[in-house]
Structure formats: C-alpha cells, structure tokens
Amino acid sequence: MSQCDLGLIGLAVMGQNLVLNMTDHGFKIAVYNRTAATTEKFLAGPARGTPIVGAFSVEELVSQLKRPRRVMLMVKAGQPVDDFIELLLKHLEPGDILIDGGNSNYLDSIRRTAYVESKGLLFVGAGVSGGEEGARHGPSIMPGGSAAAWPHIRPIFQAIAAKVDDGTPCCDWVGENGAGHFVKMVHNGIEYGDMQLIAEAYHLMKSALGLSADEMAAVFKRWNAGKLDSYLIQITADILAHRDADGAPLVDKILDTAGQKGTGRWTAATALELGVPLTMITEAVFARSLSALKAERMAAAQVLAGPPMRLGVDRVAFVDDLEQALYAAKVLSYTQGYMLMRQAAQEYAWNLNYGGVALMWRNGCIIRSAFLGRIKEAYDRTPGLANLLLDPYFNAEVGAAQEAWRRVVAWAVEAGLPTPAMSSALTFFDGYRSGWLPANLVQAQRDYFGAHTYERVDAPAGQFFHTDWTGAGGPVTSGSYQA
Length: 483
Known about the structure:
Blueprint: E1 6-9, H1 13-24, E2 29-32, H2 36-44, E3 53-54, H3 58-63, E4 70-73, H4 79-89, E5 97-100, H5 106-118, E6 122-129, H6 131-137, E7 140-145, H7 150-160, E8 175-176, H8 179-208, H9 213-223, H10 231-241, H11 263-274, H12 279-291, H13 294-300, H14 315-348, H15 354-360, H16 371-381, H17 392-415, H18 420-432, H19 439-450
Parallel strand pairs: 1-2, 1-4, 2-3, 4-5, 5-6, 7-8
Antiparallel strand pairs: 6-7
C-alpha cells in the first residue's frame, strides 16, 4: 500500500472539508480523531469511495506517512495543540513537519516554532480562512514558521487554496515563526471592522430611512456591482432578501446580540501592546461587546432619551453618500490592519510581503474583495509604503469620498444613531492627516504631575526637559518619557 502525503488530526467540519479538498487534488491523506466513532462515521460517510486512510491511534497515523512526515492539526486552539505536539514528538523524527491549522494565537506559534525546532523538527502555524465552504473548495491559507518546511507543504497547500483569475493561489509563505497566524489574526480583525461597518450602514437605512429588507437587499446588490464588490456585501444582500417560513424577512427575527470567538480581541490587544492606533477595528470589537448587554440596553432604552428622529432626508442622496462613507471607512480598516502588520514585522523581525498578503486575501477568505487588488498594486508601486493613505490611489479615493462620509457621520450623530466604526475611522483620518495635535498639552500635564519630561520644538530631537511647574517640585525626573 502506498504511503500517505499528509496526516490530519481533528475531524470537525473544517478538518473533514480540508481532507476532502486535498483528496480532490490527488493527495492521499490519513486521518485520525480522538473519538474513534467520528473517524468511523467520516470514513463511512463523506470519505466513502475515496483513498482516505483511517487511523485509530497517533502511532498508526504516523506509520502511514511518507518521509518527511507531515502532520496537520485541526483541533481546538490552546492546550489541545500543545498536548498533540507532545504526543506526536514521541513518534516523529528530525526533519518531520508539524502543522497547526487552527485559530491559534500568534504568540503560541512563536513559542511552538522554537520548541519544535529545538527537537529537530519543523513547525508551521497556518492561518486558514474561508469557513467550511472555503475549506472544501478553496480557502485562503497563510503559513508561517520554519521556512525549511515550506517546500514540503507548498504543493499541497497551493493546490487546495483558492485561486485568483489568473490561477495564482491564495497561499504563499508569510514569514517566520508566528507570522502566519499573526496575518490571519489581522485578517479577522479587518473582518470585524467590515462587518460592523456594513451593520451600521444597514442600521441607518433601516432606522433613519425606513427602507424595507427588500429595498436594502437591492441597495447592497447594487453596491456589490461597484467598488464595494466583496463577499461580505454579497452575503448581506442575500441575508436581507431571505424569508422565514411565514414570509417575513428572517433577519428581523434574529436577536441583536453578536458573538465573538476572540480573534478580534486579540487584534485589539496586540495593537495596544505594540502602540498602533487600531481605533476602528477596536470599536468594532467593542460594538459586539455592547450588543451583548441586551437586557441593560432594553432597560436603558426606557429611561435614556436621545434627540428627535430627523425627517425629510433625501433617500437617494443619502444612500449614495452612505456608499461613499462605507467605502472610505473600509479603506481605513485595511489601513489600520496594515499598520499593525508593519509594526509587528519590526517587533518580531518578520519579512512580510504586504502586497502578497493582499493577494492571499483576494479569494477564498471572508474579507475577499476586488478592493484587495488595489492594495497589492499600492505595494507594487511602493514596496516600503508606510501607510495606505499615502498611496496616490487611496489618497484620491478617500479624498473624493470624505465629504459624503462627513455628511453621513454628522447626520447620524444628530439623529442619535450609533456609528462607532464609521465615525472612529473618520476621526482617525482627521488625526493622521494633522501635522499638529494637542498632545503637547498632554505631555505638559504628564510632566506637571509626574515629572515625565518633554521635548521642545525649538531643541534637537531626543533632548528632554522638565519644568518645576509649581516651584516646589524640584529637578528630579522620572525618566519614563514615551513618545
């Protein structure tokens, strides 16, 4: 019997679909699940008639594999991954490859890469996006870790990945240790931002314009034919058009509390740690947290009054403005995500290909959109681009949209309708384009109460000063100035 190209552990929906995808592309896969009944059910069901090989112990799985042996984990992030690594290390040998395809924290992948390499093996942390449909028919895959592993997994990963129009796979090597899972985390953070922006546009059309679900579905369908062309806009149109068994829009019957699995919070927390102003994505995370306070919001709605609802807005003009506002804010979401990747690359000495990341997101993943092609072009023009807003194309696009964007945000504020993501993106834009900000006063306050020192505009950079503001503070400084 010929040996298998890869062994996969974890037969939940994503694991099963990845295995079937690999099999479709001519690879022979061995599978193992901790619960034997799950393996048996898969072999007798979706895998029936395929060359997929079942294993009922880790030792048996490893014995089925070609050298260097490649084992991919599709198990719950956290301790289960570490447990399987320890178990597998007992049966593998130097040069073999361990792949974590789950939603792991990038810090864990940094640690695991070092640990597995210390044992003479190779480790890959691969972000996989696209959900169960993507896993089955072509996901976006973002691998990072031990670079020596890439030639051995590349044929499989690029074969099963989604492709763009010219056949380029939405999968390439991202970078060292935790880079793959970091880029996947940023992808998910941008996903949070995109979804919140779309929800805010929906809220304004529903609550301010009084549009029906069918009318909003038509708007999103039209937007999807233009510069907002993307998977999330497309599915929003489908959702709004979907009817429940009684003929009413199903979306109106869904409770207004949004869940989250943690990757958005990781993105926001990482931005705080690295000092990156990820304002819009962080607001999107907080918006989900606020939505979860349903009982409190219901009580508050009875006692907290807002302004009278504004009437008389031109529906057609407002929807056109909303399209521009949504597009501009979306640019800011990606801008901030790329700022975070850039800072992390400096922090962890990763050599990230920013245009290549955009290409990997062009298809197969949740944030796939035609918009991403423009990001790749921006980094092709200027590989060292510091910020997407400084690219001529995005500079012009946001400039053209900003009047409509401001009208929408101002109208929402006056109407008392929350637009946390859309408005925070605008505030970031105004802050980023400001050559002067009032942080001089903040620094003076820090020096007043804490002797934290400050720099002066009329002195060389890096020279620090302290003022005895009260006459009783003395010359001692804290030495903790942080620009």
